[in-house]
Amino acid sequence: GLQMGQMLWRVARNQQFQQEYSEQGYLPRECGRRTAAAADNVNHHRQGQGGIDIYQLLKARKSKEEQGFIDLEMLPPELSITILSYLNATDLCLASCVWQDLGKDEYLWQGQCKSTWGHCSIYNRRLPSEFSYRKLYMQLDEGSLTFNGNPTEGIEYFMSKGILNDHPEEVAKFIFYTRTLNWKMLRIYLDERRDVLDELVTLHNFSNQFLPNALREFFRHIHAPEERGEYLETLITKFSHRFCACNPALVREVGLSPDAVNVLCYSLILLSIDLSSPHVKNKMSKREFIRNTRRAAQNISEDFVGHLYDNVYLIGHVATS
């Protein structure tokens, strides 16, 4: 409680300093030299207007010996809510034990929900008057834990609570904008639900991205299987078509096609394994990579293939989990 109080004190004080300086037109780099003068000017200006002297309110403490902190209920609601918005869900629950009304504020819990689960079907519905974002957060957390144990049961839980609509596009958006789902369970789910996988692929925008970087982004959201098989082939095929659809100019200029991108993706994965594996002593050279790749994709220029090699050599594996 003491540590949280001290943290809230610092946040409130910094928030107020920033507000006062912005009102005086000072740039952040000037704050160090003008702190005292700015504070005095603002206090005098506000006292003249008969407003609340927030700076003095924050500065006031019972005594130097006491380690107390400002009561948020003494501040304007807007400032109190801003301070509490920096807390995570656990700390917000603790704060609600001290400031019951503030800690249960719907605006704060709406932010907690949407910062962790960016898309839910329920966000776009007309909500009943008794609706609670705090309760929704608990259900989203429960559903995510269920998903990480059994993905099918997790999605069914979300649907049973009215959080998700039973439609592949809605499920795909939920997965795309959520970062709390276990990637191994997600891989199992997408392998079984190819309709959701199709929608998930279309949510990626690879416009103006270099091919290896786009492939890394793809595999960060949709993790590659550990071994080559039908599922990996499906992923690369879907990626290849999506990459070409997002880059029509590149398709024209370089001569890329979904089939050519497919070949290049496998070349990049094999090169990644070769360069990163400690078991491979004789690493593939740039010349060897260009020669091997152009045998399978003859229309692709030698310079383009060379840039692919450089990217993997400098940045690393394209499909690490």
From TrEMBL:
The domain of life is: Eukaryota
Xref: PROSITE patterns? SEC7
- Record-linked Pfam families: F-box-like, Sec7
Q: Could you tell me which residue ranges the SEC7 domain spans?
A: 129-315
What is the designated name of this protein? FBX8 protein
> From which source organism is this entry?
Polyodon spathula
